[in-house]
Amino acid sequence: MVKFSRTAHVFALARDKGSGEVVSETNLRYSLGDGDRENLRRGVERVLRILAGAGAEEIGTHHREGRVLNVKRASEEEFERFVREESSRPLRNLSSPICSAHQMGSCRMGVGPEGSAVDPRGETWEVEGLFVADSSVFPTALGVNPMVTVMAIAYCTAQSIVEVLGGKKFMSE
């Protein structure tokens, strides 16, 4: 804790190719493919190199073993071995979970109801007057933080809602 104010926690973000399903509220299934594992491995390797290159005195990962390397005292050979070993550890042995953020594509936008849940304006095919304006309307995950894209989708969908409400009354007063 003494070093916490001078600690940087960095993570590797990978655009996955795997898929999963929600079976129930407490049962989620997800499979990482070999390519996903390799992307995460390379991400850990690059994060360690970036931290060292930025002047970190010590680097480490969140693996259960909690290994740390003093970069300032390590030889180039020791540094390379540490990076190779830490970035090659199995993902199952992490003390922090692999997680998903910014879920996207669960209510896809499209030009017809066959492969999508909402039309290009964000209105659902099944319920008139019900609009969706978040990252679930994306056709697939972006692989990057979707903040600006979500803002654009929300703005455009809001314009569609204004147009629809200008001509229709959905609820009785």
From TrEMBL:
Alphabetical UniProt keywords: FAD, Flavoprotein, Oxidoreductase
InterPro entries listed in its UniProt record: FAD/NAD-bd_sf (IPR036188), GMC_OxRtase_C (IPR007867)
Domain of life assignment: Eukaryota
EC number: 1.1.3.20
MF GO annotations: long-chain-alcohol oxidase activity
Gene3D superfamilies: FAD/NAD(P)-binding domain
Residue stretches making up the Glucose-methanol-choline oxidoreductase C-terminal domain: 26-154
Family the UniProt entry places it in: Belongs to the GMC oxidoreductase family.
Name of the featured protein: Long-chain-alcohol oxidase fao4a
Gene designation per UniProt: FAO4A
